[in-house]
């Protein structure tokens, strides 16, 4: 085993990391992963695994399915790891946006079945919010957070708000909100020196006030999910601090719906704890790229395919 648990964090990706074929080779190679995919299909009442492995991508990229798919691959990857290396417990875990729920499941805050149902509800509600109040998101490159906060404030009106949604890493920030306000903020960001301002291909304004229409129902879904205190320290998105209790976990994933994902601060919290190895658990290597820009000496390892597991031995 190449990892040192005392300096290792497991991190879990959010939307944007999905891809056709995700988890297929993992399920083919490991019985535990195959069983988890089958369990998910039974819980949901349709073959999510078939969609993940064979598409079509239009269905996989529907937020209703994307969130469940990412959660499933992440959880299957983590459970495979714990089966192969039963005595290894990471020092901490964290996830980006949707990934925070994957991290909480890995930390034992709720069961896989309950977590999958909660994630499915999250996808349903966020899709509905996007239909009730269509908005937009944009990636802004090369502007710092204080400047972008000022730009968003100037671009916002009482009825049209834009705000920082994801502080991904220095020089890469996502803004979210009413489409017109986001467009004004993109122009303002360019005027303030942004290298690029790129609209994202979404109609959902995640992590913004446009999620307010489904907030109460989301809160009810979170409150009705059985939770226990995490068995592994979880770094939450909203405050970039450790979620030690079930109550703190509930509060964070409720607030996250309209609040900023503080990924840069989350990684800094972990490096401040002595973490320098980050294992990206599930699909892709998006987080590894962000982490490298936050902590240049960090070691990033993917963990979603059989080859990734064999590389750890």
Spell out the key features of this protein.
313 residues; six-stranded mixed sheet; Malonyl-Coenzyme A Acyl Carrier Protein, domain 2; Alpha-Beta Plaits; 14 helices; alpha/beta; four-stranded antiparallel sheet
Account of the 3D structure:
There is one protein chain. The protein is globular and about 55 Å long. Strand 7 and strand 8 (242-243) form a beta hairpin. It has 313 residues and is α/β, with parallel strands linked by helices. It has 14 helices and 10 strands. It folds into 2 domains: 5-131 and 211-312, 3-Layer(aba) Sandwich (Malonyl-Coenzyme A Acyl Carrier Protein, domain 2); 135-202, Malonyl-CoA ACP transacylase, ACP-binding (Alpha-Beta Plaits, 2-Layer Sandwich), CATH 3.30.70.250. The protein has helices at residues 24-29, 31-44, 48-54, 57-60, 63-84, 99-106, 112-132, 145-155, 179-191, 215-223, 246-255, 263-272, 286-294, 306-312; strands spanning 8-12, 92-95, 136-141, 162-169, 172-177, 196-199, 234-235, 242-243, 277-281, 299-303. Helix 5 (63-84) runs parallel beside helix 6 (99-106) and helix 5 packs antiparallel against helix 7. A 6-stranded mixed β-sheet has the order 8-7-2-1-9-10, sandwiched between helices.
């Amino acid at each position: 085993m190449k990892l040192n648990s005392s300096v290792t964090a497991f991190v879990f990706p959010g939307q944007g990391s999905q891809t056709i074929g995700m988890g297929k080779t993992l399920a083919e190679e490991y019985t535990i992963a195959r069983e988890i995919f089958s369990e998910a299909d039974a819980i949901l009442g349709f073959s999510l695994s078939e969609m993940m492995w064979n598409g079509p991508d239009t269905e996989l990229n529907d937020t209703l399915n994307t969130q469940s798919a990412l959660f499933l691959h992440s959880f299957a990857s983590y459970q495979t790891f714990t089966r192969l290396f039963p005595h290894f417990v990471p020092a901490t875990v964290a996830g980006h946006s949707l990934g925070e729920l994957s991290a909480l499941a890995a930390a034992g805050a709720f069961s896989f079945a309950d977590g999958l149902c909660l994630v499915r509800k999250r996808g349903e509600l966020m899709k509905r919010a996007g239909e009730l109040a269509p908005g937009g998101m944009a990636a802004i490159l090369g502007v710092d957070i204080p400047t972008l906060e000022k730009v968003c404030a100037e671009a916002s009106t009482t009825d049209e708000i834009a705000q920082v949604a994801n502080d991904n890493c220095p020089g890469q920030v996502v803004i979210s909100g009413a489409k017109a306000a986001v467009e004004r903020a993109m122009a303002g960001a360019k005027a303030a020196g942004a290298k690029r301002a790129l609209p994202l291909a979404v109609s959902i304004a995640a992590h913004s006030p446009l999620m307010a229409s489904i907030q109460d129902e989301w809160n009810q879904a979170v409150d009705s999910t059985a939770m226990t205190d995490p068995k592994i320290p979880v770094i939450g998105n909203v405050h970039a601090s450790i979620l030690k209790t079930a109550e703190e976990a509930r509060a964070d994933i409720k607030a996250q719906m309209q609040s900023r994902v503080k990924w840069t601060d989350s990684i800094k919290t972990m490096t401040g704890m002595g973490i320098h190895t980050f294992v990206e658990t599930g699909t892709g290597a998006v987080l590894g790229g962000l982490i490298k820009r936050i902590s240049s000496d960090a070691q990033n390892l993917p963990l979603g395919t059989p080859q990734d597991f064999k590389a750890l031995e």
